[in-house]
Amino acid sequence: MANILVFDSGMGGLSVYREIRRLLPGHHYFYCFDNAHFPYGELAEEALITACANTVEQMVSEHAINLVVIACNTASTIALPELRARLEIPVVGVVPAIKPAVALTQNGCIGLLATPGTVSRDYTLRLIEQFAPGKQVLLKGSTELVVQAERKLAGELVDMDVLRAVMASWREEGHSPDTVVLGCTHFPLLADELAEILPGVTFVDSGEAVAKRVRHLLGSGGSAGEGRGMAYCTRLDAAALKLQAPLMSWGLEQLRQVGD
Question: Which residues are catalytic?
């Protein structure tokens, strides 16, 4: 039975945690979110690397972690080399699911919906060049949707007008992708709302692929039974405390601050 750390700047990584725990329910899970530096999509690269690496390293040391999942596309495109240099255990990142989207599209037009940081990275552009030659790939970076996903998890209403405004250009005739890559782990949490705004569109995310990668690295153990789940944050303030009930509904027993 392994100790698995799933790390994100906020609640978006729960979409990845859900897929891993569904496939491997017998392991122990530590979900850690860096709310002190949220959202990562607006951080300078060096600040992001420092924040991410320091917190992950502390969690690994304090909880005998066997494998780390960086459940944040922005952090994965920037901080993975530093993390892998510091740690002696496997570190799994998430990348936009461009390759699966290419296999699914019927009209040759794919939308990549991610944070501003992810859509502007050279890494993302190289993925598109490698896996989507000859396809039209529309890029859209949005921090507003990250905020709406956090609101939804906190039990607040999603502002559908905000979603419609963000997605307006993809609803126009002649500019409509039939397949949309959810390139931020927050965005699968808004899948129902996005499907209402973009009816008939196929949405693709990386959660299932990450779960299969974790299973490959850890072996066949953990596929049966029921392990424990714990939640940690970097700042246990009033806003974080409001998330305790939602986190418990995801099988995470309590919320603590990193270092406590």
Answer: 72, 184
